[in-house]
Design goal:
With 91 residues, the chain is of the alpha+beta class. It contains 3 helices and 5 strands, in the order βββαβαβα.
Length: 91
């Protein structure tokens, strides 16, 4: 039962980004993001939020557990909360 964040290494639009997930529920994730980071719900990416590097330390200080990208994905999958990438579904 944790909100997890990986290292901000993912480049996009001149910034580096982290992924923020919950290994408990989407509700836990939405509550954390609204209360601690102020990221709008419309930014939810199906099973995670992308967090800009300038909010990484804030997320960790608020209780997000820093993990590597592989651990984040593994725990998301084990929780049954991983959604398939868009466009990668079976035809």
């Amino acid at each position: 039962m944790a909100v997890l964040i990986d290292t901000p290494v993912w480049p996009w639009r001149g910034r580096r980004w982290s992924h923020l997930v919950s290994d408990e529920s989407y509700d836990e994730l939405h509550t954390f993001v609204a209360a601690e980071l102020g990221i709008p719900r419309r930014a939810f990416q199906g099973d995670h939020y992308d967090v800009p590097e300038d909010l990484y330390d804030i997320a960790v200080s608020a209780g997000a557990e820093p993990v590597g990208a592989r651990e984040l994905l593994s725990r998301l999958q084990k929780a049954g909360l991983r959604r398939p990438k868009r466009g990668s579904g079976a035809g």
